[in-house]
């Protein structure tokens, strides 16, 4: 019997990608730690004192953005915060997926738990209750510039806290007030600084980037596995993966990838020695460690940026009780995430580029020595001819998507906010790159398995379970059939993590 998973207590300091995934995808419950509540209450008292003193503090006793010079009287404080959520909730486009919204809710709660934002614990408790009850705000996917944070998306996320906006519960879209009433959750009445604390942050792009990093790890391991199958199918030369070669260059990802390939191909009798079939392989086989490895190094960089942002205070202004300081700055600026997302998109697209070239080698008889398009009855049958077309189309689309969003900036708020990151755009299109890559790898997986039908030599320690997993779902190609179904079957095995899990039972591979 499985031991129940304990609640995750948010401190603002210790959230990891692993615990992020447990909450976002596996519905682990969350609460605010006692220490976080103490720190939040101390910071909240500082806000109360500032309002009572009548001091001019951005977002507490003033308007927002260009209106930062407009002083608001104490009697209008609650109205100011309520109006902020309403006026900023102007996103467009289809709603973000549930797991992205859950990530936004978790990350915003964790950032506020740090105790620098001046928000009452009771407000964050309401956000946490919604998360635990699986009440997910409807958040349009477009409208954030990625500086001043993800203002529009976070406004949509926050409206249900005051009983406004829309949510989705068990797949049903409804008014937020109805869902709160059904769950027995009372809407909050915002006080000074609290609306701003809820929406001034990077949590949409941070949620998207976190999910992309998690997806990326699985795809990098799947890519090594599928590439190893292609090496076998083409009688490749694993001598190019010798550890001495990679150690003298020294790049971590390259060394790791070469080791993965050696483990995956261990005991294989389908591979060859230099000169046995050819002296050396084409780059798409020989340079797998160099190409996949560089993408792994980029993944590690993106992972580092993401894990830092998981526990970051990203609103403005921030209040420091110990030093009695209120500091207006720009921690909401998404530049670190935007650059990491653009870089990771390029890195993952390159995995697709080299995969498509291996698929071409598998289906092209002049390069493979195998039956044309992997069919025994060419002419009457087209075999897997068009699978390579689809891969080429997706690879080309990814090249367009890899134009960096972070190099763009459009001034806003009457030129007060004159440089923005476009981080939300970078992270959204990163997921499209990953979707396309998953299909490109699925196509290579299908073609490599079909190519391995030729001959009866023993496969490698890691490639054998990968081949067998696909064959349990998909029989070898004998007559022409709808190719998209083959791609869908392979895609599910990759996307679900089943491919990597099957391989990891027999051998060790890592990023």
From TrEMBL:
Major location category of this protein: cytoplasm
E.C. number(s) listed in UniProt: 4.3.1.3
Post-translational modification summary for this protein: Contains an active site 4-methylidene-imidazol-5-one (MIO), which is formed autocatalytically by cyclization and dehydration of residues Ala-Ser-Gly.
Top-tier EC class: lyase
Keyword entries, A-Z: Cytoplasm, Histidine metabolism, Lyase
One annotated Gene Ontology cellular component of this protein: cytoplasm
Any Gene Ontology biological process: L-histidine catabolic process to glutamate and formate
Catalytic activity: L-histidine = trans-urocanate + NH4(+)
A GO molecular function held by the record: histidine ammonia-lyase activity
Cross-link named 5-imidazolinone (Ala-Gly), sites: 147-149
Pathway(s) where this gene product acts: Amino-acid degradation; L-histidine degradation into L-glutamate; N-formimidoyl-L-glutamate from L-histidine: step 1/3
Subcellular location: Cytoplasm
InterPro entries: Aromatic_Lyase, Fumarase/histidase_N, HutH, L-Aspartase-like, Phe/His_NH3-lyase_AS
Alphabetical list of Pfam families matching this protein: Lyase_aromatic (PF00221)
Modified residues (2,3-didehydroalanine (Ser)): 148
Stated family: Belongs to the PAL/histidase family.
PANTHER family noted in UniProt: HISTIDINE AMMONIA-LYASE
Record-given protein name: Histidine ammonia-lyase
Protein encoded by which gene: hutH
């Amino acid at each position: 019997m499985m031991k129940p998973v304990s609640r995750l207590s948010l401190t603002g300091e210790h959230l990891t990608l692993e615990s992020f995934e447990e909450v976002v995808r596996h519905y682990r419950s969350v609460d605010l730690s006692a220490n976080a509540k103490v720190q939040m209450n101390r910071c909240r008292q500082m806000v109360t004192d500032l309002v009572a003193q009548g001091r001019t503090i951005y977002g507490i006793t003033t308007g927002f953005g260009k209106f930062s010079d407009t002083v608001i009287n104490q009697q209008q404080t609650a109205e100011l915060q309520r109006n902020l959520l309403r006026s900023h909730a102007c996103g467009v486009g289809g709603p973000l997926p549930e797991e992205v919204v859950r990530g936004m809710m978790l990350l915003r709660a964790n950032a506020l738990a740090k105790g620098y934002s001046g928000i009452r614990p009771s407000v964050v408790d309401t956000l946490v209750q919604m998360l635990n009850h699986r009440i997910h705000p409807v958040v349009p996917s477009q409208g954030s510039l990625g500086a001043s944070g993800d203002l529009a998306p976070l406004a949509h996320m926050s409206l249900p806290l005051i009983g406004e906006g829309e949510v989705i519960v068990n797949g049903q879209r409804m008014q937020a007030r109805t869902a709160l009433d059904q769950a027995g959750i009372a809407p909050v009445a915002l006080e000074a600084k609290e609306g701003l604390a809820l929406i001034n942050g990077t949590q949409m792009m941070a949620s998207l980037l976190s999910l992309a990093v998690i997806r990326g790890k699985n795809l990098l391991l799947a890519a090594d596995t599928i590439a190893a199958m292609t090496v076998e199918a083409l009688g490749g030369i694993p001598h190019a993966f010798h550890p001495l070669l990679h150690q003298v260059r020294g790049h971590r990802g390259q060394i790791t990838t070469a080791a993965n390939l050696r483990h995956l191909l261990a005991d294989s009798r389908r591979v060859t020695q230099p000169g046995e079939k050819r002296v050396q392989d084409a780059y798409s086989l020989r340079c797998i460690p160099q190409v996949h490895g560089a993408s792994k190094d980029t993944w590690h960089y993106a992972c580092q940026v993401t894990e830092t942002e998981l526990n970051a205070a990203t609103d403005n202004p921030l209040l420091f009780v110990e030093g009695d300081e209120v500091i207006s700055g720009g921690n909401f600026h998404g530049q670190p995430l935007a650059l990491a997302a653009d870089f990771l998109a390029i890195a993952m697209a390159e995995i697709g580029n080299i995969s498509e070239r291996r698929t071409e080698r598998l289906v092209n008889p002049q390069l493979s020595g195998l039956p044309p398009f992997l069919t025994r009855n060419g002419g009457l049958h087209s075999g897997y001819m068009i699978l390579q077309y689809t891969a080429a189309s997706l690879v080309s689309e990814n090249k367009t998507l890899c134009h960096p969003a972070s190099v763009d900036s459009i001034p806003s708020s009457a030129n007060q906010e004159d440089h923005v990151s476009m981080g939300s755009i970078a992270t959204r299109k990163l997921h499209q790159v990953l979707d396309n890559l998953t299909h490109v790898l699925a196509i290579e997986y299908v073609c490599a398995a079909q190519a391995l039908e030729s001959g009866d030599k023993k496969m490698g320690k890691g490639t054998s379970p990968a081949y067998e997993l696909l064959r349990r779902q998909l029989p070898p190609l004998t007559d022409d059939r709808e190719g998209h179904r083959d791609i869908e079957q392979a895609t599910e095995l990759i996307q679900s993590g089943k491919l990597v899990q099957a391989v990891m039972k027999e051998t060790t591979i890592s990023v």
